[in-house]
C-alpha cells in the first residue's frame, strides 16, 4: 500500500511505460506484444492520478467506468476490490484494457493530459483484470432466482455477451446463438492473438457459462431459424440482435478478383479463427505471405491488424496504403506505433487505382496514385484529391482490402418488420434499443455501424436493462 | 457434434452421409448447402444438402473425395460425428413450372442437382435429366433421378454406361431435334457448366448453374466466395450458389479456385502419409 503523494509530486512521476516484446522479435511471432505492468509499476502509475473531484476520465469512458475509485484501490494494493469496482460498469475489462481507443476516451479526457501525459488508464485496467484472472478468484455474482422468461441473443460479440451476462444475473434464461463455430465475434475472428489473446475471451465466456448463460454455435439466425420462429415456436419472450457489422466492403476496382486479393475479414478470419498462422496443425491456409510483398489498403484498426499479421506470417515487405495522412488514420495510435516499430511501411496520401495480375490470375501489384488534401468533407476531414500524373505500381502478391464493413442483411431480410436505415443498419431507439418489432431489441455495430468494443458492450448492457424492464412490465410503448 | 446416422458409398470415392442436424433439416430448401468442419483443426467446407427429413431431423449430403477434408469425411461411418454443421445456407433454387426443364448433373453434381429435379417435377415440369460421368461406375443416384424424371439420359465419356459422349452432346441433340426446352439447370465441373452455357446461349434458353467457389463462413462475412456475374461482384454463399449461366465469368471462378492448389496438395500428402489407406485406391 502506497501513501498518497501531494499533487505536485504526483505530476513529477513520469507515465509508466508498458513493457513490450522487442519490436523485431515480436514482428515474427503471434504472442502478445504488450507484456503487462507488474504490481509495483501499476501502483506507481496509480500514484499519478490526481483523484479529481469531478473525474473527467469517467465522462470520457462510454460506459462510465469509475476510474478514480479503481485507481485508488490499485494504489492501496487492493487489486481484487479494484477488479470488482471495474466490473460494476465493464464486464470485459481484460479486453477493453487492451483494445479501447483510450486516447479518444478515458485517457483523452484525463485532466493530467492537459499538461502531462494522461494516466495510463487502459494499462491499469488491464493489470487489474489480469491479476483477477490469475488468482482465479473472479467474484462471479449470484444470479437472481429464475423468472421463467427466455431471451435469445443473436451474435456472440461484445454486445451479445454483455447483454447475456446481465440478463442472466436478473434471473432470465438466456441463449446466445452464434453463426460461427466459435464464440466471441470480432474478438476472436478479427482482432489478432498478438493484441488480444483468445484465451482471455474464452475465459470470459467460460465465466458466463458458469453463471448459467447457454450458448448455441452454428446457428445462422435468418437461415437456421427465424426471429419469428424463436418467438412463436421456441418460446422466447424477447430477442436481442447483436450481429455486428460484418459485411466486407470492396473497392470495386479492376482486378479485385485476382488470386491474392482478400477482404480484411477473410484474411483475418483465416489467420485468427482458422489459425492459418499454424499451418502445420490447421487446414485453412492463407495465400502464401512468406517472403511476399503484402499491401493493405486502409488506415483503421483492421488495416493495422492485417498488415501486422502479414508481417508475422513472414512477409518480405508489409505496407499500408492510405489515402490521407497518418494523423487522419482512425486506428489506435498505439497500434500505429507498434506497426511502424515492427517494420511496416506507410504509404500515406496514396489511393489504389487497380490491381494488376499475371496470366495465372494471380496478383502482381497495385497501381496507386498520390493524393493531396483539399477542403474538409462531410466528415470534417480534409478531402483527398488525386494528383494527376503521379501513378505508380507497388509490387505485391497479396493485397488486403480493409476499407470498412457494412451491415449483414441476413436477419433483417428474414424479418421485414424490423426497420432499417438506408445503409441497412437496424433502427433502434437510442435510449432503450427497442426495434420496430415488439419484443425485439438491437445494439452494437448492427445499429451504430462499425464502432468499438466498449460501445458495443455498453449497448449490450443498455439492452439488458431495457429487456428486463419489458419482461417485468410487459410495456411496449409505441412511438407518440 | 452432429452424428452420422447412415453412411454408404454410391460410387468409388463418392459417399452418401445422413447427418443429425435438426435445425437445418427443418428449414432447408432445394439448392441450399451446409458448411461442415470435421475436427478442431480442420477447414470449413461447403456441401450441398441432397435431401432432408424434418421428422427425423436429418440431412443427407453426398461427398466426393477430392482433397484432404472430403477424403476425411469419406472415412467416417455411421456412429461417427462431424464437429460442426451449419446451415441451410445460400438462396433456394428458383423453382416454378417452366414447362420442360432439363436437369443436368455431372459427376457428384448429380447429387446437387437431384433435389432441384425433384422440386421441378413437383412444380409440374416435364423433367428431362441428363447425367454425365467418366465411366459407368461413376454414375451416381441414377435410380433416384430416374424416379423423378420424365426422361433420363446417361452419358459416359468412354461409353461404358448409357450413351457415349458428353452431357452437352445430348443437350445439343435435343435442341437439334427441335425439342422445346424452357429451362436448363446444370451442375458439375466448371468446364461442363461452361459448355452447357454455350449450347443454350444461342437458343436463348434460361440456364442456371451452381457455382463452387472456395468458402469460409458462408454468411457473407468474408467475401472469399465472390464471383463475377454480369460484371458485378456477387457473394456465392448468400446471393447464390445458383446464377444465370449466361452471365457468369467462369474464367475468374477457375482462377480463384486454383489459388490454394499448392497448400491443398500439401494437405493431401499429409493425410495420405498419416492414413496410407486414403486415396483413390480405398474403395469398399
Ligand atoms: C480487425 C478489427 C479490429 C478491431 N480493433 C478494435 C480495437 O482495437 N478496439 C475497439 O474498441 N474496437 C475494435 N474493433 C471494432 C470492434 O471489434 C467492434 O466494434 C465490436 O466487436 C462490435 O461488437 P458487436 O457485438 O456489435 O459485433 P461483433 O463483434 O461483430 O459480433 C457479431 C457476432 O454476430 C455473429 N452473427 C452475425 N450474423 C449472425 C446471424 N445471422 N446469426 C447468428 N450470429 C450472427 C457474428 O458471427 C459475430 O460473431 C475492431 C474490429 C475489427 C474487425
Ligand atoms: C456451394 C457449394 C456446394 C458444394 N457441394 C458439394 C457437394 O455436395 N459434394 C461435394 O463433394 N462437393 C461439393 N462442393 C465442393 C466441395 O466443397 C469441395 O470439394 C471441398 O471444399 C474440397 O475440400 P478438400 O479439403 O477435400 O479438398 P482441397 O484439398 O481443398 O481441394 C482439392 C481439390 O478440390 C478443388 N477444390 C477446392 N475447393 C473447391 C470448391 N469449393 N469447389 C470445387 N473444387 C474445389 C481444388 O482446386 C483441388 O483441386 C461444393 C462447393 C460449393 C461452393
Ligand atoms: S472501458 Fe475503455 S474507455 Fe472505459 S475506462 Fe476502460 S479503457 Fe477507458
Ligand atoms: S481525470 Fe485523470 S487524474 Fe483525474 S481522476 Fe481521472 S484519471 Fe485521475
Ligand atoms: S463464404 Fe464468406 S462471404 Fe461467402
From TrEMBL, chain A:
Enzyme Commission designation: 1.4.1.13
Asked if the record carries the keyword Oxidoreductase, the reply is yes
Annotated Dihydroprymidine dehydrogenase domain residues? 26-135
What ranges does the record give for the region Disordered, renumbered to this chain?
Answer: 1-20
**GO function terms (MF aspect):** glutamate synthase (NADPH) activity; iron-sulfur cluster binding
According to the UniProt entry, where is the signal peptide? none
Top enzyme class, one word, equals oxidoreductase
UniProt keywords (A-Z) are: Oxidoreductase
Q: What are the FAD/NAD(P)-binding domain coordinates in residue numbering?
A: 149-460
> Superkingdom of this entry's organism?
Bacteria
Q: Which SUPFAM superfamilies match?
A: alpha-helical ferredoxin, Nucleotide-binding domain
Q: What is the protein name for this chain?
A: Glutamate synthase [NADPH] small chain
- Native source species: Posidoniimonas polymericola
Query: What lineage is on file?
Result: Bacteria, Pseudomonadati, Planctomycetota, Planctomycetia, Pirellulales
TrEMBL record, chain B:
Q: Which cofactors, by name?
A: [2Fe-2S] cluster; FAD
* Positions with a binding annotation for [2Fe-2S] cluster: 222, 225, 237
Q: Which domain of life is it from?
A: Bacteria
Query: Taking every annotated instance into account, which residue ranges of this chain make up the domain FAD-binding FR-type?
Result: 1-95
Give me the comment on cofactor binding: Binds 1 [2Fe-2S] cluster per subunit.
UniProt xrefs under Gene3D superfamilies: Nucleotide-binding domain of ferredoxin-NADP reductase (FNR) module, Translation factors
Q: Would the keyword Flavoprotein be found if you checked this record's keyword annotation?
A: yes
Q: PROSITE patterns annotated for this entry?
A: FAD_FR
Could you tell me the keywords of this UniProt record? 2Fe-2S, FAD, Flavoprotein, Iron, Iron-sulfur, Metal-binding
Single annotated GO MF: 2 iron, 2 sulfur cluster binding
Q: Name one GO biological process term.
A: pyrimidine nucleotide biosynthetic process
Question: What residues does FAD bind to?
Answer: 62-64
Q: What NCBIfam families does this protein's entry cite?
A: PRK06222.1
Name under which the protein is recorded: Dihydroorotate dehydrogenase B (NAD(+)), electron transfer subunit
Instruction: State the species of origin.
Output: Posidoniimonas polymericola
Where is the organism placed in the taxonomic lineage, from the top?
Bacteria, Pseudomonadati, Planctomycetota, Planctomycetia, Pirellulales
**Chain's gene name:** pyrK_2
